[in-house]
Amino acid sequence: MGAEKIKIAICDDEFKDRLINEESVRRYLEINSIDAEVLSFSTGKDLIEYDDAIDVLFLDIDLSDRVDDPQLDGIRIMENLIDRPNIWKIVFVSAHKERVFDAFGLKTLGFIEKPVLDEKMYHYLEIAIKELTEYREFEIECVDSPDRLRVSDIIYISSDHNYCLAHTKEGNYKIASNIAGMEKQLPTGLYVRIHKKYLVNLMYVNNMDATCKIKNDSLELPVGRHYLKEAKAKYVDFVRNTVKQRMM
pTM of the predicted model, to two decimals? Predict the structure, then answer.
């Protein structure tokens, strides 16, 4: 994992539930000898105001900031956080199973019904830490920035003559490679070539057909006829595998 410590957060307005979930996370970390920081929030307001990185967030859907904002439940908090790069994945927690469909979004890793069992917490922690480890191993060096980009932060890559542009929520970054070279470097299960000029991160794809629609964005990228069959097949496999591993 390198020197970068994993950060796991729990946000629940019920002290007892917050404590149970925090203890479950700490047991998992101890069993697996993982060095991580565990954060705890009792209000959505505190969570929204926290601007440091959180890799995995266990968020109570039924959370209510009774004083600051009675309507600020877990779903509205997710909507506040969706475009912020500091939150990587969210696992929703609720006593109401019928709210599971409200919880799906770009950052959603899964859903746990209360009362929370260690088995379910461990399931999502294992998925998140495995993916985080894999994605942190792939970092891209930029020409015009001292920072290195995580491949999970790149929405898509476009060809720019002998260079490429990596498009993220924060901006575009130039990479000293052509698109064929980038295609060989990137993890094949996460990225797919859709056009002679474009590679897309399947995490951000909402639909793949004659155009590639990006989640939570009006952007549609063209899909070349030569790439369409393979791109659609990889997208379907990605969605199927993602849903399968997240189901309990």
Answer: 0.69
Cis peptide before 115 (omega within 30 of 0): yes
Grade residue 1 by pLDDT with cuts at 50, 70 and 90: very low
Mean pLDDT, range 6-22, rounded to an integer = 94
Rounded to whole angstroms, the Cα distance separating 46 from 181 reads 43
The DSSP code sequence of the chain is -TTPPEEEEEE-S-HHHHHHHHHHHHHHHHHTT--EEEEEESSHHHHHH--S-EEEEEEETT--BTTTBTT--HHHHHHHHTT-TTEEEEEEEES-GGGGGGG-STTEEEEEESSPPHHHHHHHHHHHHHHHHHHHH-EEE-SS-SSEEEGGG--EEEEETTEEEEE-SS-EEEESS-HHHHHHHS-TTTEEEEETTEEEEGGGEEEESSEEEETTS--EEE--HHHHHHHHHHHHHHHHHHHHHH--
Query: What is the three-class DSSP state of 36?
Result: strand
CB 214 within 8 A of CB 206: yes
Q: What's the pLDDT tens digit per position in 216-237?
A: 778 999 999 999 999 999 999 8
Which pLDDT value is given to residue 86? 82
